[in-house]
Write a structure and sequence with these properties.
The complex is a heterodimer. Chain A is an all-alpha fold. Chain A folds into 2 domains: about 1-70; about 80-145, no CATH class. Chain A has helices spanning about 15-30, 50-70, 80-100, 105-115, 125-145. Chain B contains 22 helices and 2 strands. Chain B has helices at about 1-15, 15-35, 40-50, 55-80, 90-100, 105-140, 145-160, 165-180, 205-225, 245-265, 270-285, 300-315, 315-320, 325-340, 345-350, 350-385, 390-405, 410-430, 435-455, 465, 470-485, 485-500; strands at about 185, 190. In chain B, strands 1-2 form a two-stranded antiparallel ribbon. In chain B, helix 4 (about 55-80) runs parallel beside helix 16 (about 350-385) and helix 7 (about 145-160) packs antiparallel against helix 19 (about 435-455). The termini of chain B are far apart. Classes of the chains: A mainly alpha, B mainly alpha.
Amino acid sequence: MANRSELGRKGNHPDLLAGMIFIVVGALGLWAGRDLRMGTAAMMGPGYLPLIVSGLILLIGLAVTIMGLLRSREPLGVVRLRPLLIILVAVGGFAYAAGSLGFVIAAAWLIGIGSLADPESRLREIAASIVVLTIFGILVFIVGLGVQMQLGPF
Amino acid sequence: MEFLDSLILGFSTAATPTNLLFCLIGALLGTLIGVLPGIGPTATLAILLPITFFLPPLAALIMLAGIFYGAQYGGSTTAILVNLPGEASSVVTALDGYQMAKQGRAGAALAIAALGSFFAGTVSTIGLAIAGPTLAGFALSFGPAEYFSLTIFGLLCATVLASGSVIKAIGMIGIGLLLGWVGTDVNSGSERLTFGAVELFDGIEFVVIAVGLFGISEIIVNLESPESRGLIASKITRLWPTREDFRQAWPAVIRGTALGTFLGILPGGGATLSAFSAYTLEKKVSRQPQQFGRGAIQGVAGPEAANNAGAQSSFIPLLTLGIPSNAVMAMLLGAMTIHGITPGPSVMHNQPDLFWGLIASMWIGNLMLLVINLPLIGLWVKLLTVPYRLLYPAILLFCCVGVYSVSNRAFDVALAVGFGFLGYLFRKAKCEPGPLLLGFVLGPLLETNLRRAMLISQGSPSVFIERPISLALLIASAALFVLLLVPAIRKTREEAFVEEEV
């Protein structure tokens, strides 16, 4: 992460991260809304409020960043990549599989890969979770609640 | 007796077998997640929201509401027995409750907490029944200018009363507003902020944001730190409190109820703020403040009554004005919208059975909690031994299938991954995601009313000052803002929330 740079005794890292998020979102909003018509106060176009608010977020981002630089040092807290990446990959895989491969594969992937995020997970437990939760999911979601998703790839 | 008629209508609606069943399910689920640390009511509501599509509207709302107030009960059980508050709102209960348990008075603490909560729930339900029609009648005269000012006031209040930095909270509201505007602009029909993605033309689904920010990111954060589990302090021997306990506890319950009911109504208030304020109040009025932290029963009774009263009365602004006061209420607003109900003053007139049925169900739910919880305490405590590594894959499955089922498309799940990551960044950046959700649900309302008001006034902003209610709300907003800049008040606010983190 960019704000990990050494800033000596100053620099509130959560604030700097927050400022960065706000700046990015604000800039993204301004860019996405660049072609929208502003209109007038009496006849507001689609871009009127989005552009104003995006600008505001950008300003807040700058203010938070400056405050973050001036305030006393505070680290970001624990960041562990393992649970973060594994959970995101597990859910992302579910999204991909749900569209084409069907519920059984999607659920097995989600539970199997997702379980790896906790280092204490044991193989036997993961296998049991996959079987139990997939069957539970088929019965409750697909059969019971009628969620529109294929079971298998075909 | 119009009031009695309404109550009868409410109870007869809430007492149908279906509604009673979902009230029970909600209360039990709420207790369950209240007991389990690491799963909060906000995340649970987000995850279960899609499932309520399949229920009738009233049953869905009854269940979701039950989860919310059930969690307040469950959270206090573990706070007292194992010094592990299941919810933020029961953090203060652990201070004296766990000490009481250590002294062998766990039964008394649990009973006082449950009875106090029930009393508070009853009072604030009556408060809701009385204040509801009055406020709603008042709100019926609101035009676009009033609604705009009210929304601004609500959003600003939410930032002031929320914990953490105010400027960050305002930024989060801004992001929420932007997200709420993604999609097709209702006035001009042109698409905006979609980056050309066809899937976004109808806007972002509420469930996607809620599950991503509150469900997925919460799982990731929980997995980062090892589990902490307390030990059960003692066997519960004697459940019923002594006469002396009652004598000390009841004034605290009454004070807590009054404080909680009041703070719950304020935007941004709710259960957690009420509990903390009640604890501070009890400590101030007590003749033996040194007893607090060493097993003072007032320290359990006051906050427990207050958090339940606050949880209940935070329904008032949502049901009467259509303005949610915190993230949980934003979830309920989302649920109402999913079922085609527009929350606001008209609900009471157009769907009185829904309004009164929900209120009556809350009282029934509180009664159920009292009856089912005290005998079942042993079972709940056993649940604490279920390790998180077995729980979270099931939660993940609910998250994913829930998001998918909203419009049966995988795109939403992929989008939820993005929001999960964003939610994780927000947590690391110490930005509360609650205000974002409020901004998201209020964004379209804010824009529509601003447009209408400005159209009527032909672009002159004086319309907001000329209408008295609107002016009063704007003055209140401005006053709040100025108050925040006063150093003394800012300091007190910071101290109040520092205590919260202990």
